[in-house]
Amino acid sequence: MDTGNQKKIIITGGAGFIGSHVVRLFVNKYPEYHIINLDKLTYAGNLGNLRDVEIAPNYSFIKMDIVDFNGIMNFFEQEQPDAVIHLAAESHVDRSIEDPLAFINTNLVGTANLLLAAKTIWQGNNHGKLFYHVSTDEVFGSLALGESSFFKEDTPYDPRSPYSASKAGSDHLVRAFHHTYGIPVIISNCSNNYGPNQFPEKLIPLFINNVLHNRSLPVYGEGINVRDWLYVVDHADAIDVIFHRGRKGETYAIGGHNEWQNIDLIHLLCRLMDEKLNRAQGSSQRLITYVRDRAGHDLRYAIDASKLANELGWQPSLQFEEGLRRTIDWYLANEEWLQEVTSGEYRSYYDLHYHQR
Ligand code: NAD
Ligand code: DAU
What we know:
The chain is α/β, with parallel strands linked by helices and about 350 residues long. The protein has helices spanning about 15-30, 70-80, 95-100, 100-120, 160-180, 205-210, 230-245, 260-275, 305-310, 320-335, 335-340, 350-355; strands at about 5-10, 35-40, 60-65, 85, 130-135, 185-190, 190-195, 215-220, 225-230, 250-255, 260, 290.
């Protein structure tokens, strides 16, 4: 498509949870850019996430699989993008335990295809170009419970699930293309996101959906694992800041400075759900069911995001309880969305694969 002198940015995975928030932010904030959302629309991709921006003149969508080498190569040659923000991935740890190859294909082969396409069209003229790779803190492995250590940009890689290993491999490929071919890249590694439009297989939306339908809340193991939660809009904001002001070749760790043991988070969620649904306090908590632990379950993730704060001035904007209230309000106001994405063959990983203890 001819977009004149507009800077052209391909956002992969833009129909997914985080990608849709990044697309919305960029389309609304930067009318001088043309945003192309490139997405295969897997079970996790939903164009309904973007109804409010789909008619914007600086937005377009292309349905494409990043594993399709020829398709990606032809598309890049035709569009000549100035930048790529790469979010497309298989993203759920439990699914990666069940089907690692899907993760290796999309996260590794798909990322390699995008890098090769960028290299082909940018080589010899890298000026103003950027391949921004959105990654995860899970590449760093697991911290001990009760420790005060944090993941930082220079923490050695130690991925422990097929998902995190595939993301670690994709990070290595991105750096290798920077060092070997001079492709301008930036990587960010973020902690657990939550907020509107998250597919109800991840802890928070799954539990909201289950409370709504009076289904049990499957807590893996003892519920003692710790995650560092960040509101998705804050993550999108960090990506915007890093994309525009981050240093090429650098890595930025992004986190909420907001550690919660799963069971404490679940108790808070249950309390807020009872409040919002006008149910007696304790109703939701009664749905908690301790189930067999996730295989290889990482104990604790926590991010030291001081590089991003000190160099680029980014800070999370939202307190966790406020973010959780907004998230619950969104799911309650969008039961149709929940219905849409959970209809058909979708059942939770636990329902499909685990036996209750
Ligand atoms: P998601 O599962 O909600 O969305 C993934 C999107 O990628 C979907 O729209 C899907 O259709 C698309 N996609 C999947 N395979 C594809 C393929 N082969 N070709 C083209 N499109 C494909 O994921 P998310 O939670 O929004 O995560 C987005 C990115 O952020 C991922 O790279 C993930 O690793 C990373 N990340 C996620 C979190 C989190 O807490 N969710 C935290 C840190 C980093
Ligand atoms: O840290 C960043 C990562 O966060 C992202 O890279 C991943 O894409 C994203 O899925 C997320 O991974 P987690 O495995 O931490 O998220 P999940 O929501 O699946 O699980 C959060 C915690 O809750 C984890 O300790 C497992 C536990 N859990 C999860 C589910 C789905 C349960 O106890 N019961 C459940 O049913």
